[in-house]
Specification:
Keywords: Metal-binding, Zinc, Zinc-finger. The chain has about 55 residues and is an alpha+beta fold. It contains one helix and two strands. The protein has a domain of about 30 residues: Double Stranded RNA Binding Domain. Strand 1 and strand 2 form a beta hairpin.
């Protein structure tokens, strides 16, 4: 038996730009590039960990 309101939730409608908390967000451009090997990272913290782990 098909439900007529299967695509509705009890949450209010959200604008298109916002995402549900459980869904992955669209990839953002990676802003931080490793000067030693050229790999790019989304956060400075990821870049710092990469430098510590891969170039130490």
């Amino acid at each position: 038996m098909a439900s007529t309101n299967s695509d509705k939730t009890d949450k209010p409608d959200k604008p298109v730009e916002s995402y549900d908390e459980g869904l992955p967000k669209p990839p953002e451009p990676k802003k931080y590039m490793c000067s030693l090997c050229g790999r790019k990272f989304e956060t400075n913290t990821a870049l710092v960990w990469h430098n510590w782990n891969d170039h130490n």
